[in-house]
Specification:
Layout lengths: L10 H4 L17 E2 L2 H6 L3 E2 L9 E5 L27 H16 L3 E5 H6 L10 H9 L7 E5 L11 H4 L5 E5 L1 H8 L7 E6 L2 H5 L10 E8 L2 E2 L1 H10 L4 E5 L3
Parallel strand pairs: 3-10, 4-5, 4-10, 5-6, 6-8, 7-8
Antiparallel strand pairs: 1-2, 8-9
C-alpha cells in the first residue's frame, strides 16, 4: 500500500509551549498517548473514556489571532496555516498537530466541499515517526476517510480519495442523494445500504470491512442523520473520528 509523500517535522522546530491546560483533562479516564514524539513536542495527549454506543469525535482547527479560519474571498483554510510565510515554523507545527491527531484516529471526516477545494488533500499521516507508532498500535496505516455529502452536488468524483484503491473511503449521503452519486461513480464501490433509525442499526451485521470505497445512506429524505452515522461508525469499529475543518 502506498504511503504517499513523507514530510520532515524536526522536533526542535515545532516543540510547543503550553500556556493553558483545562482542569477537566485530569478527569479523563480513557487513553493516554505515550508515543515519544508526541510527548516531546506536544506533551500529554489524553482522551476521555470512549462512549459505548457511538464514535468519539474530536476536531482540528487552526485560526488566526483575530479568530479567522479562512478569508471571505477564499474559503481555502491553508492560507491561515499552511501558507503562513511570516512564521514557517509555526505553520509546520500546525501541520504536525493535524498529523498527530490523524495518527491516533480510526477515521477522518471531511466535507465534499472541503476536498473539492483541495485536490491533493488526504488524511494520510505524513510524519514517519507517528506513522511507525500508529503501525505498532495495530491501526491501519491510512485512516478511513469519511466523506459527507447531502446529495453529491459538490462531490469531486475524480478526487484521489474517491478513485485511489490505496485510500479506504466511505461516502455518506442522504437517501435521496445515494442514487445520484451511484450513477456518477466511475470506480468500483461497496453499497453498504440505507439506515433510517436505530432499529435498522441494531440489525446491522457488518464490521470493519471497508478496505477501498463504500457508500452508505443515513437518515431520511434529503437529510443525513449524524447521530445515526456515529452509531454506525461505532458498530464497524471506528472508535475515534477526527473532524477536519472546515467540514
Amino acid at each position: 500500500m502506498g504511503l504517499g509523500i513523507q514530510k520532515s517535522f524536526p522536533a526542535g522546530k515545532i516543540k510547543l509551549k503550553r500556556i493553558y491546560e483545562s482542569r477537566d483533562i485530569g478527569t479523563f479516564n480513557g487513553a493516554v498517548i505515550t508515543w515519544p514524539k508526541v510527548k516531546e513536542v506536544y506533551g500529554n495527549l489524553s482522551f476521555p473514556k470512549l462512549p459505548e454506543d457511538r464514535t468519539y469525535t474530536y476536531g482540528s482547527l487552526v485560526s488566526s489571532v483575530d479568530g479567522r479560519i479562512s478569508f471571505s474571498e477564499s474559503s481555502d483554510s491553508t492560507q491561515i496555516a499552511k501558507r503562513n510565510v511570516y512564521d514557517p515554523d509555526g505553520s509546520l507545527c500546525d501541520l504536525w498537530v493535524l498529523n498527530m491527531l490523524r495518527s491516533v484516529s480510526d477515521a477522518v471526516l471531511m466535507g465534499s466541499k472541503t476536498i473539492g477545494q483541495v485536490p491533493g488533500l488526504t488524511g494520510r499521516v505524513l510524519d514517519r515517526e507517528l506513522l511507525d507508532e500508529r503501525k505498532k498500535s495495530g491501526k491501519p496505516l491510512i485512516p478511513l476517510h469519511v466523506i459527507v455529502t447531502r446529495n453529491g452536488e459538490h462531490l469531486p468524483f475524480q478526487h484521489r480519495i474517491i478513485v485511489s484503491k490505496d485510500i479506504p473511503a466511505l461516502i455518506v449521503t442522504s437517501p435521496n442523494g445515494v442514487h445520484k452519486i451511484k450513477g456518477r461513480l466511475a470506480v468500483e464501490y461497496k453499497d453498504l445500504g440505507l439506515y433510517r433509525n436505530l432499529d435498522e442499526i441494531s440489525a446491522m451485521k457488518c464490521r470493519r470491512f471497508i478496505s477501498t470505497l463504500g457508500i452508505i445512506a443515513v437518515g431520511t429524505g434529503d437529510t443525513i442523520n449524524i447521530n445515526l452515522l456515529l452509531r454506525i461508525l461505532n458498530k464497524i469499529g471506528i472508535n475515534r473520528l477526527l473532524i477536519e475543518s472546515p467540514s
